[in-house]
Amino acid sequence: MNPPNKLHFSDAQLDWLVKHYPNTENAELCFRLGCSESTLHRLARRFGLKKTRAYMRRTQKEAAAAAGYFAKKYGRRPPQVPPGGNAGSFKKGVTPLQRLGTIGERMRVLKSAASRRKTFQREKARVALGLPQLTRLRLGSPVERPEVTAKQRWYLRSLGYRVDGFTAYYDASTARSQRIETKYKAFKFTAI
Questions:
Q1: Taken in order 21, 27, 30, 31, is the CA torsion positive or negative?
Q2: pTM: predicted TM-score of the whole model, two decimal places
Q3: Is residue 180 situated within a structural domain?
Q4: pLDDT tens column, 35-77
Q5: 134, 158: one domain
Q6: Which residues, other chains included, contact 97 with Cβ-Cβ below 8 Å and sequence gap of 6+?
């Protein structure tokens, strides 16, 4: 059964979209079709539509000109745009240090390191929980942990343990069992 608010496009609308998508702004396309940007992207993927290079180059130049205008208006340094037709690309042979300066390069390195550290920690957590790795980062030797099931976690919670990952916390009100704690070797049992 189709949802009541699902959009239906006529063949004339779809033909118009295929004809005008490569050289028209997405906001105007959405307005004319009466749909959201996500619906527009879905239709473009379905029909294999892409923006032309000339259109993309023109919009990049317009965006760079607007950024330069507002930078001058508010007393900031205008963005560096390489000469020629490649408005959004870097010059060959120019290093990040030359392009950004010493302070900008230092900030770029710090931001990159923080991003990598965050991704590394996320991947280690995924591997520790038994989930597949999403990136190609080398995490070192994987931690060998016995299989932990949802039933084991549920059982520990029913006894009064607070389970967080591979750590089970207990206090005075927990019905502790030495047999269970030796059987569930994957968990680290810690007092609160």
A1: negative
A2: 0.40
A3: yes
A4: 999 999 999 999 999 999 999 999 988 988 888 888 888 888 7
A5: no
A6: 105
